[in-house]
Amino acid sequence: MSTIKVRIPMPLRTYTGGAGEVEVEARDVREALAALGAAHDGVLARVLSAEGELRQFVNVFVGSRNIRSLEGLSTPLAEGDVVAIVPAVAGGTMKARERRLIELKARIPEVSPQEAIALQGRGAALVDVREADEIAQGSAPGALRLGRGFLELRVEEMVPDPARPIVVMCGTGTRSLFAAEDLARLGYASVCSVAGGFARWKSEGLPVEVPFALDRSARERYSRHLLMPEVGEAGQTRLVRSKVLLVGAGGLGSPAAYYLAAAGVGTLGLVDHDVVDRSNLQRQILHTDARVGTSKVASARQALEALNPAVRVAGHEAHLTSANVEEILGGYDVVVDGSDNFPTRYLVNDACVKLGIPNVHGAVFRFEGQVAVFWPGRALHPGPCYRCLYPEPPPPEYAPSCAEAGVLGVLPGVIGLLQATETVKLLLGIGEPLVGRMLYFDALRASFSELTLERDPHCRYCGTGREFPGYIDYEQFCARAAA
Amino acid sequence: MVLEMPLSARGQLERWAEEGYPRERCGLLLGQAGDGVVRVAEVTHAHNLDAGRARDRYALDPDDYLRADARARAHRLEIVGVWHTHPDHPARPSASDRAQAWGGWSYLILSVSAQGVQAMRSWRLEGKDFIEESFRS
After folding, report:
1. Range with the lowest mean pLDDT among A207-216, A421-430, B2-11, B66-75?
2. Neighbours of A200 (CB within 10 A)
3. Is A96 on the interface with B (CB under 8 A)?
4. With contacts defined as CB-CB under 8 Å, which chain B residues touch A92?
5. Are residues A313 and A241 in the same domain?
6. Same domain, A406 and A472
7. What is the ipTM of this complex?
8. Considering the domain boundaries, does residue A221 fall inside one?
9. According to a count of CB atoms within 10 Å of the terminal CB, is the N or C end of chain A lower?
10. First vs last Cα of chain A: how many Å apart?
11. Which residues on B lie below 8 Å from A91 (Cβ)?
12. How many CA atoms lie within 13 A of A321 on its CB side?
């Protein structure tokens, strides 16, 4: 043990009875401080943290050297050493921000998190103005997560009534003051801010929910969607959680799947049992010359994953039949029918009717194409199914396939993208879908026309009050029409 | 408490404040405290470690503190306070001053603009708040 002098700065002398120097016995700095603390109650807490580390705003010197550049608290001491406690001296100007905060606190009423819950219970809108990455860690249940950046642009849609009280919350209660002032300026009569913000909310043990949120790369990828209030974060989240099945990864399925993957539809199912043929490449843009001969599902998966790795591609390399149709279609939100044959089209129609799934139908022939949404299961304003229009398939000479009659390569691009557009609208629940209508496109005349499609109340499959009659032998059904 | 300072020390602080403008300057007050009066005998100038934000922040170099402390002891004085400038801001303690202040010291603040020192006021931490103390020179 060595006898050490500890120099006490004036601000700490209240603990040492005014003494500017205290003698202790110690082998290192830690012991010297401990001895000082033992002799003078309270002084140690100003120098060391609860964990026993040197506090940030204090320096300790041995002679003229800072122990941070020696061995820290373990710096050894020798007889006669002087240990000086040096308080950090720092500060700064009052920034404009600080002056503004004082003003705002005088003007904007503040409430506790508990009071915020009570206000929310009485009908107030609780608006969380934190950034998306903060909200991803958790947010108050039922809060409107509008963010700060677009708050003024978006709040009116969520809170149309200017008399409805608004409680604004941020991370610690500072940003919410600024946001509250802006909302008051927009004309909301009663706006307050949660003092202490979400940090206090959480520390008081109030309920927290972790909302699904887009990560940074998704936010960048879908930024043009996020800019539109009709899509926005909620809509994009819906797309990411959606499942769309494409029947056929060919002329219609290619552009539809490609854009749906780009748009961020989370799960894309592909049903196709075919392999890529060089004659497909004139229009089936998912496939490439190098992949001629490989399965269309595998080829499509490669293209879609390259475009958007976040999309899950569920491949069904199978021929769609009565036996597997429900297993394959079940669980999808929308089916996009891009099939090129009548047995499949009827089968898909019947299964969609039974499962209540909207069926986005498309078909192309030479220079013409058509799009419609068949959705008899729609809750409000149900539409017809394919069978309401065509109870039976036409004879083959009236409906030759592309393989027989040819097709303008870009035409399935137009029709497939109209199908994709309808699909996205259905998933988002926006706009007026092509339910009960068929859009007909004539590429040579460059004209669209619209046909009204009526429901057939006596339709065997979707007629009012009818039980599902069961699947049939579709090959035979279509072959019979051919006979 | 009352802070007393000789005119020479006051003139020295004004020169430093104006030379430093628009950056913050800081230093220590050496003197003796007792009977409700803090008598400043000497003022020192210290490096501002917060060079990146020298327009609105200061952090006094602990080596300068140590030198001032040695000098004070040699003259039987104490470090009795801190001075710093507020370029283009009032001579009132800011939130960041308060957050980093120590009790038992005088905090002398010089408000300085391009036209020179505008005000000089002294403050002392009482609990969590700064209370203004009289300042004479």
Report:
1. A207-216
2. 18
3. no
4. 24, 50, 53, 56-58, 94, 96-97
5. yes
6. yes
7. 0.87
8. no
9. C
10. 112
11. 57-58, 82, 84, 93-94, 96-97, 100-101, 107
12. 9
